[in-house]
Design a protein that fits this description.
The protein is an alpha/beta fold. It has helices spanning 5-12, 23-34, 82-96, 115-128, 142-152, 155-158, 192-202, 240-252, 277-293, 295-313; strands at 44-50, 53-59, 67-72, 99-103, 133-139, 161-167, 228-234, 257-262. The protein is built from ten helices and eight strands. It is globular and about 55 Å long.
Length: 314
């Protein structure tokens, strides 16, 4: 495949709620650009209400029965849906051999913080009762919600989360965030003003330092039994310094983490896989990581798949 960086950038810019954007126009652009009729890799989709919340259940051909991922989509808190993230999550499900639950979270500004967080907590509580290992996945603004979920859980529930997987996480919306003070930051996709506006539409100004909104404000006392974390992002993102600060916070509190940085790539390059070969390779790395960390589940999934094939032949 020949890379087309210009086309990738044009597509990915639609994920960011710029200071001049109108809400409904922004939402429609995401839906038009990222919604696909057919899912890749023969992933099957089932629609299910979980605690009253519409969810996609995305099942790859081979998946570990004792593992599930709850995925929180990005979209600047303002846009995005199951439909527009469905194809990306199907590719992720296939690569990781994991069934993915993709909830339809409520969006700001009509439903500000903590509406989306409450939606995810309700889904988690239902899945928690099923006695499976849970992975929490998220990207962009969804990372704030994902980490808010982890921080709001009590110890026993938190221990059920086997890992957190974050793509290009937005971690600090406070007025003191360094990216709001540095002039002439260069990024092909996002701007500091866009992140600032997003935070102000998600919650009120005095709440922007709440760790459930800006996870960089986590205190050490909040990090007992914090799950292992895998972060993947592009080298050219302006949020790189925030991610490095977050990794330092994890390391200082004894939390295992992996920071996977793709050279010369932009924000959420993984969602432009028709234009960037690096997107495919990045998702493959995450798949390999999760399968190696869950080898027993992987072997069981393969055995089940073989048994089904043998049964079909007979």
């Amino acid at each position: 495949m020949v890379n087309d960086r210009h086309a990738a950038i044009k597509k990915l810019k639609k994920l960011v709620f710029t200071p001049k954007a109108e809400i409904e126009t922004f939402r429609q652009k995401i839906e038009d650009e990222f919604t696909e009729v057919f899912l890749p890799n023969r992933v099957e989709r089932e629609e299910k209400l979980i605690c009253g919340i519409p969810c996609d259940i995305l099942s790859p051909m081979i998946y570990a029965k004792e593992r599930v991922m709850i995925y929180i989509h990005g979209g600047s808190f303002i846009g995005g849906s199951r439909a527009s993230w469905r194809s990306f999550c199907a590719s992720l499900a296939n690569a990781t051999s994991t069934k993915i639950i993709l909830p339809e979270i409520r969006l700001a500004p009509k439903f500000p913080f903590p509406a989306a967080l409450d939606d995810i907590k309700n889904v988690f509580k239902t899945i928690y009762a099923d006695d499976t290992d849970i992975i929490i996945g998220a990207d962009g603004s969804g990372a704030s919600i994902a980490l808010g979920l982890v921080l709001s859980l009590k110890d026993k529930a938190r221990q059920r989360i086997k890992e957190i997987v974050l793509f290009s996480p937005w971690l600090d919306f406070s007025d003191d965030a360094p990216i709001f003070k540095i002039k002439k930051l260069k990024d092909e996709i996002i701007t500091a003003d866009a992140i600032k506006r997003t935070g102000n539409m998600y919650t009120y100004s005095s709440n922007l330092t709440n760790p459930l909104v800006s996870p960089l404000y986590m205190q050490p006392s909040m990090m007992d039994d914090f799950p292992e974390t895998y972060i993947q992002m592009g080298e050219k993102e302006i949020i790189m310094s925030e991610t490095e600060r977050f990794c330092n916070l994890l390391r200082e509190n004894g939390v295992k983490y992996t920071l996977d940085v793709e050279p010369d790539m932009m924000h959420m390059f993984q969602m432009a896989d028709e234009y960037l070969n690096e997107a495919h390779l990045a998702i493959e790395r995450i798949g390999k990581h999760i399968r190696l960390h869950n080898r027993a589940d992987e072997e069981e999934a393969l055995k089940n798949a073989e048994a089904q094939e043998n049964g079909a032949e007979n």
